[in-house]
Amino acid sequence: MYPVTVIRHPKERISKCSLKALHDRDFIMFLKATKGFVFDATNYITLSMGAPTLSLQDAGNPVLLLDSTWRLLEPLTKCITGKPIYRTLPSEIGTAYPRVSKISEDPLGGLASIEALYIALKILGEDDVSLLQDYHWRDEFLAKVERAGW
Fold it and tell me: Which among 127, 126, 129, 128 has a CA at the least distance from the CA of 139?
């Protein structure tokens, strides 16, 4: 399985995190971006809105996923150094996660962290539906993936 590093914003509540059930997966390393935290993301595929679309041609590099609410994502990106390979996910796949933010608006095309991880690994050649086994909106999300032709 692809090596994955997840950097979690310190204010992200694990109890509400869509990645909570994956903490026992040996190919995923979870880090918490506490004050002063820095991560050299050189050659990591780093998911980012507005970047070139991720494709199978990007295979072979580890994946970096920033786990945060959309509102706190920009400050979290400041801990990234080096030369990451920024990629975005196909826009035709929408989230199944019900959006309820009263503070800020989430971007169109934004996915829950577990959804983004599943799609990224699927594009890179690792289609592991078991990643979604504990995701409450799994069936709705997989239906969206299928309708989008993925």
Answer: 129
Residue with tokens 């086994």: 133
**pLDDT tens digits, the chain, 150 residues: what are they?**
779 999 987 676 665 667 877 888 889 999 999 889 999 999 999 998 889 999 999 999 999 999 876 666 777 788 999 999 999 998 878 787 665 554 444 444 578 889 999 999 999 999 999 999 999 999 999 999 999 888
Q: How many CA atoms lie within 13 A of 6 on its CB side?
A: 22
DSSP characters for 105-140? PPPTT---HHHHHHHHHHHTT---GGGGTT-TTHHH
Closest CA to 123 of 106, 145, 95: 145
Q: Residue 100, class by beta-carbon neighbours within 10 Å (0-12 exposed, 13-18 middle, 19+ buried)?
A: exposed
Rounded CA gap, 71 and 47, in Å? Answer: 16
Q: Is the CB of residue 147 less than 8 Å from the CB of residue 89?
A: no
Residues in the chain: 150
138's tokens: 């799994």
Judge contact between 79 and 37, C-beta under 8 A. yes
